[in-house]
Amino acid sequence: MHEGKLKNIWGYIGVGLRELFWIVSAGAVIFGGIAGFKYLGENREVVKVEPVSRPITLVKTIDLNPINAPLPIRGEGFVQPFRIASLASQVGGQVVKLHPAITERGIFKIGDVLVRLDDSAERASLTQTIANIEATQARLDLNALLLKRTESLRASGTTSQATLDQVRSQKSELAANLNSLQAAKKSAEVALNRKVVKAPFNGSVLSKSVEIGTVVNGGQSIAEIFTQSRMEINVPVREADAALIPGLFSGAAPVATVSIEFAGKTFLWAANVSRVAPNLDVRTRTLAVTVELNDIAAIGTQQDETLASGAPPAMINSFAKVVIQGIHPDDTFPIPSTALHAGKYLWLFAPSDTNGGVLRVLEAELIHVDGETSYVKIKNLPKKLRLITTALSTAQDGMRLRDVRDDLIDIPTPLEQVADE
Fold first, then answer.
1. Which of 259, 289, 293 lies closest to 277, judged by CA?
2. Which of 269, 233, 270 is closest to 255 using CA atoms?
3. Are 383 and 317 members of one domain?
4. pTM, whole model, 2 decimals?
5. Assigned domain for 29 exists
6. What are 128-162's pLDDT values in tens digits?
7. Do 179 and 192 have their domain in common?
8. Residues 314, 381: one domain?
């Protein structure tokens, strides 16, 4: 029993020694950390605060110049004649004569006989009808003499009333026959006139479908004709662009320019807006504006572009580019479309007295977009500001900038370098 108590005492002593060991170890670690922290604090290197030198961003700029001409409203379309029609006869028959304009694709005037069909039967019918009219008229004249004589005899009692009535009945019958023959004459004249096809307007021949000797039916196409002296282009225009054309809906004739490329050369025509469609296109929501060439013979060129064949006419189905003159607003500037940010902000370079300049963010009103060029309205634009065309990742009003063209250095040419050597 005494030995068991000794074992318990030694057990307690062992546990106490282990606890004491861990306590001493923890204290040593804490003491070492504190001592190390003090040592590092006493021997630390002092860092001096120095201002950070930030690089100044280089930008490209262009000058802002107000427009000195009307806004260009551009469109495209194909040249078409003012009128184009299929020439045909109301009746059938054999073609016996064609106008030279049809055979040679030439020019004709209104009222010219373009096609003549065989009219021998109609002429014979008309001649027969005229002969019948003359015969009936002769009988009617004879009846008038007989009636006058019969009336005299009746007055003297020499002839009967029945004889007088018979003569009067013959007169009425002959008068009715004469009216019928005169109506038949008019019908024969109409039938004869329908054997002739006349030009409904001044123009030229686009194509022909028959030759002399061809038998055609009524309504069959003989040739296709058009107004050569009047050409036009239907141009689709957006609503926003149409609102910039002065007098478009009030009957005015806005000025336009038409350009057509032919054989690599560009030819120009003066034109005017002739009419505007009363409806919007269902799919594109654009307005059809018709531009008519003022004088198809008055052809201009870009620079001195000529062809050995001579200037071409405004040919049907030619692809044309049209520029309609819009309004001429004040305080409006053309800029690259990429220089307009968020649809209304411009980045401007304001030069300073020292080297470089600063960024100024200015609000502008978008007036018109013409391809890669936008027209914006800027009220009270300060002088000497330049438009920044460089893309900036972070644009802040007042940030320091440098213009590339202000830093340009004259580089000597090879000849100058040789002279210096």
1. 289
2. 270
3. no
4. 0.71
5. no
6. 999 998 888 888 888 888 777 777 777 777 777 77
7. yes
8. no
Is the CB of residue 205 less than 8 Å from the CB of residue 225? yes
Boundary residue ending a domain (279, 294, 325)? 325
Q: How many domains does the chain have?
A: 3
- How far apart are alpha carbons 78 and 316 in whole angstroms? 8
Q: Which helix (H) or strand (E) holds 88?
A: strand 84-88
Residue pLDDT, tens place only, 257-297: 999 988 888 889 999 999 999 999 999 999 999 999 998 87
Q: Note whether 341 and 321 are same-domain residues.
A: no
Query: Starting from the edge strand earliest in sequence, which strands make up the sheet with 221-226, in order?
Result: 84-88, 221-226, 203-208, 107-108
Residue 70: what pLDDT?
Answer: 95
The number of residues in the chain equals 421
Q: Determine the structural domain holding residue 242 and report its residue range.
A: 72-81+230-325
* 93 class by beta-carbon count within 10 Å (0-12 exposed, 13-18 middle, 19+ buried): buried
CB neighbour list of residue 97: distance below 8 Å, 6 or more residues apart = 113, 115, 116, 212
**What is the spatial distance between Cα 358 and Cα 382, in angstroms, rounded to a whole number?**
14
Structure tokens at 119: 């009219």
CA nearest neighbour of 291 among 327, 257, 267, 319: 257
pLDDT for the residue 409: 47
Segments of the chain scoring below 50 in pLDDT: 409-411, 415-416, 418
Q: Which of 325, 341, 360 is the last residue of a domain?
A: 325
Backbone angles phi, psi at 325, to 5 degrees: -75, 125
pLDDT for 176 equals: 87
